[in-house]
Design goal:
By secondary structure, the chain is of the alpha+beta class. It has one domain. 41% of the residues lie in helices and 34% in strands. The protein has 6 helices and 8 strands; from the N terminus they run H-H-E-H-E-H-H-E-E-E-E-E-H-E. It has helices at 2-21, 27-44, 50-64, 85-95, 101-111, 197-217; strands at 47-49, 65-81, 119-128, 133-143, 149-163, 166-176, 181-191, 225-227. The strands form 3 sheets. It has a 4-stranded antiparallel β-sheet with strand order 2-5-4-3, sandwiched between helices. Strands 1-8 form a two-stranded parallel ribbon. A two-stranded antiparallel ribbon has the order 6-7. Strand 6 and strand 7 form a beta hairpin. Helix 3 packs across helix 6 (197-217). The longest helix is centred in the C-terminal third of the chain and has 21 residues, at 197-217. The termini are far apart. Keywords: Signal. Residues 1-18 form the signal peptide.
Length: 236
């Protein structure tokens, strides 16, 4: 009898341990994780040409630009109530340089459009001034299955640069006394350079690559969707 009682006690302890070690999954956590996966799905759909991005940076630093300073700001926010989304976007607008009034209004048209969505992504860019201030932003949202919450990843890539002017040297030869005395005068002029159409698309690819690399370095996404050429990337 003592052995039987001991076996019953051991069986109860084993059952209790199994119940403790195998808790019921939290449905909210599962939904939140699904929203996060939808954010990553949206970001993984963005195409970048790695080779062209590397070549563009090399060209800009070596030939076109004589001033260069870059920085990346990244924000990850989970389980944002849908009702609080406008306030969250207002916070980004107030806190981060590169989201002007026009971009903030565009966010409303994208994220509050009629119809259901599981994930959405928006990109914007701003380049202005002779001492150029370039800002590239990307924001992605994934909605939970119950449509009550969203997860968000946000990045602003900041690049301050100046396009170096093109230097034009003109050589003027002079002489006197039947060419007995000769001399040459060099005159130098500068001409402002601009980014050509092809270079603009390459520049967009470059800043997009920088933004996605920021997500990878922070461990927020696992990979970047690299393609073989710029021709495989739709025009922005």
């Amino acid at each position: 009898m003592k052995i039987l009682r001991l076996l019953l006690i051991l069986a109860k302890l084993t059952l209790s341990c199994m119940q403790t070690c195998d808790p019921t999954p939290d449905p909210c956590a599962k939904q939140n994780n699904t929203a996060y996966e939808r954010v990553k799905e949206s970001l993984h759909s963005v195409k970048v040409c790695k080779y062209d991005a590397t070549e563009t940076e090399r060209q800009l630093k070596g030939e076109l630009v004589d001033h260069w300073n870059e920085k990346t700001d990244i924000v990850k926010q989970t389980k944002i109530p849908i009702s609080d989304l406008p306030k969250f976007l207002d916070h980004l607008h107030d806190a981060y340089e590169g989201i002007d009034e026009g971009t903030r209004k565009k966010m409303n048209s994208v994220f509050f459009a009629k119809g259901g969505w599981e994930h959405k992504l928006m990109e914007w860019k701003m380049v202005k001034g002779d001492d150029a201030v370039a800002r590239y932003g990307m924001i992605a949202f994934g909605r939970s299955p119950d449509k009550e919450f969203v997860d968000c990843m946000f990045v602003i890539y900041k690049l301050d640069f100046k396009i170096a002017p093109k230097v034009i040297v003109t050589e003027n030869k002079h002489s006197m006394f039947f060419d007995f005395i000769k001399w040459t005068i060099h005159t130098q002029e500068t001409e402002e350079q601009t980014l050509g159409v092809r270079t603009i698309k390459a520049f967009q690819n470059f800043v997009r690559s920088k933004a996605l690399k920021g997500f990878v370095e922070e461990g927020l996404i696992e990979q970047i969707n690299y393609v073989g050429s710029l021709d495989e990337i739709p025009d922005a």
